[in-house]
Each structure stands twice: as structure tokens, then as C-alpha cells.
Request: fold
Amino acid sequence: MQIKFFGLVTLVFLITAALAVSGCAAAEAQEIIHLPVVDRGNAATTTPTPSPTATTTTPATEPPTATPTTTPTTTVTPTATPVTLIWPTIVLTTTASGLNSPVDLADPNDGSGRLFVVEQAGLVRIVRNGQVQPTPFLDITDRVTCCWEEGLLGIALPSNYTQKGYFYLNYTTEALGKLQTRISRFRLTTDTDIADPDSEQIVLVYDQPHGNHNGGGLAFGPDGFLYIGSGDGGSGGDPDNRGQNLGDILGKMLRIDVETGSPLTYTVPITNPFVGQARKLPEIWAYGLRNPWRYSFDRQTGDLFIADVGQNAYEEIDFQLASSAGGENYGWRITEGSHCYDPDPCDKTGLTLPIWEYGRNDGRAVTGGFVYRGAAWPALQGVYLYADYASGRIWGLRPNGSRWENRLLLETGRNISSFGQDGAGEIYVVDHAGEILRVTVP
Ligand SMILES: [Ca+2]
Ligand SMILES: [Ca+2]
Reply:
């Protein structure tokens, strides 16, 4: 039964072994499924580099599950002609080791050279100059329920963190005798290397009917609002059909205002799409998500990339323009990837299908990353990096004319639980086995 529940942390070794013997083929041949926008103007700006080392494909020895879609399912108006993109080779450079099940990373961006790393059991550690500091930044293991897909799962720092002196965490707890997700605000002590576990202000709390699919990410949008990806609650196949129920907080992307004024909890932005509508929760920004474990905003364009973990067959990348008014239905459980799930056949009218998907030849649980906007590696500019937790593969995804183009960039063999981005736009890989690695171009 549990083999159907792939979320963050499930049967990894079995999966990895299975993938290793199945002759995994790179997903180079997939076509674009859906493209809501075209031409970010970043095509063909890179310096030619040697071909990526990880593009050799091996014929799959089992029926491919990610049948290429040969035509876009949504009409788009091409405004740019596809060009031959030059893709960089990437390597990972170890930044820090010795962490205990790290799952997220944030940069206070205060000139201190520190990185905050979230450990799943309930600690936030400081990495300074490549060294994990012995004293935790925060320890809330007393209230965190861990592990599997539970635990302290995400961190977000507000703009002007240094002046505000507080931050937000997303974790699971059984403090009230039942499993719940909490979004909470914590404050610094007078020591900027120590946060106060007793300073917790619970912003938002909701019940978790099952241990898996708890979402876990937190991200501030360019609008200053806090985006919370809530998983569908768990089990398998979204048995209560929460993703499509606009009266249920699970299976959604939520958008709340935690920064305007001095709210102890939050307020709902009046521009949220379902405000004032009967039997629909005003906190909902978008819906039809299964387990949006990691999502991020392109710091240059403000576009939102959501990596939604699949059920049995397809992992997907969803996309939303910065200009979106919200209300997108990303399909789950009607669809998994671009394919009918329940019911099958299904009516896809009105659904926002993924910009990319991959099947079981390439992995089992997608881990979303970031669009590279740093200065160190011009060849990576504008590339959205993401990975698969089970297979350890890292891909790049970027627009090319009216299409999205995907490329396998690196086989790592690692269980990549998350990505992180520092203040300079450099990207880090979080290895669940305990390392932080920086993405570099040799
Ligand atoms: Ca759950
Ligand atoms: Ca979907």
C-alpha cells in the first residue's frame, strides 16, 4: 500500500535500486505540454560550452510511463522562434557536511556569511564558512513530530529580516493530541545566532488526516504575501477529494498576509480569488495540488514554479505567471501530470496542466528548485533547476520560443530533499543524507 504514497521520503533505497536496474533513460525527448507564456528573452544568451556529460540515454527496458506529448494541449501564440539552446554542465561543490536530515535552507542575507539549514527533527542550524555551528539557531524538537514526511519542513524569511528579527517555519506536530501542520513565527533573542523557542506565534494551523503529503514549503511572493503549499492530507489517491474541494484547506496553494500591520496571525489579501464566495476558503490562491513539497518564485520575473509530487506515474512542474490573478486548478486528483487519474477518462476543461512532467523511468518524487539568477555562472542564467528525490537526477528547464525545454544536467545518486537560494542568487542542493552543496559550472 505505502508504495503508492510516494511523497518526500518513501522507500528510497528500494526505488533507487529499482531505477538502477531498469536502465533509466533521460527524458530528453519529451515535448512541451503547456506553455502559458513565451519568450523570457533569455534564450541563446549563453556561451557555448561542452555538451553536458549526462545526456547519454539508455533505452528503457520497461514500457515508458512518460509518453511524450507531441502537441501542446493549449493554444499558445508563439512570439519567439525556438533556437538551439546551449546547456551548461553542472557539478556540485560541498558547502557543509554533518547535518542531520536537512530539508531546507535559507540565507539571512545580512552580510554574516551564514546559512540557515532546517533539520527535519526540529532544529535550525547555522552554517558559517562551511562549518555547522555547534549551538543550534533554534531547537523545537519538543513540539515537532518527525519523520517520514513529517517534521520541521520549511523556513521562510521576510524581506528586511535583519530589521524584523523574526522568521516563519512550517512543521507537523501532535501537541494537541492529533497530527497538525503549524505555520509559526519565531523571533530572535538579543543574540542573532540564537532564536527563541518560546517566542512562537502560531499563524495558521490545520489538521493532517494522514502522516504523508504535508506539503512543507514556505515562500514569500514578490507581492510580500506568504505562500503555503498544503498537501492533499495524505493516504493515496486523495481519498476525500480534497484537492478539488474549495472548502478544504488541503491540496492547495494558500496565500496569506502575515506582514502588513502587526498581525499575530494573518489576514487574507482581498485580491485572493475566492474571497467572498460561499463555501470557498478565502485563503486559497490555487488548487488541485497533491503534495507541492517545494515551490519558488523566480526572483527576476516573479513567476511561480510548483513541483507537485505524483501518485503512481508522473511527477510534474506547474507554472504560474507573476501576473496571475490566482484561482488556477492544477488538476489533482482529476489528473496526475497531464493524464487522467480519477476519473479516467476525465474532462480536463479548465485545468492548468503542467509545463513539464516525467515518469517512473526518471524518478519517484520531484523536488522543486529555483530559477538561477546569480552572477557566478552566466551559462545557467534563467534555468529552472529541479531534481528527483529518489533517482538523484538534476534537470534544467527553461523557455525556448513558445516551448519549455528540459535537459538532464547531472546524475547525483543523492536523495535531494530541497534546494536553497542565497542572497546573491546562487543555488544550493540539500542532500537529505546531511550535506549542503553549491551548484557550480566547471
Ligand atoms: Ca498529511
Ligand atoms: Ca497537476
